[in-house]
Amino acid sequence: MDLKNEITTFFNDVKDIAKIVAPVMAFVGIIGAGVIYTGAALPIIGNWKRNNPDLMNTIFVGMIVLIAAGTISGLIAYT
What we know:
Layout: H1 3-38, H2 43-51, H3 55-77
Helix pairs in contact: 1-3
């Protein structure tokens, strides 16, 4: 195989992996954020949330990045 085919195959593999992984990780992040938000009444989660005030912001920024990656890879798949 030549270099052009190798590069094309590599990016197609990365695109296929991103189309699967990004939505799954976004779903896991949403479930985790829901557990943290609703479980704040429990002492363990409440203390952890209190000790990490930027926790929810970090989770939502990560989910936005994952959703954007999934969207971009989905758009690339149709072009």
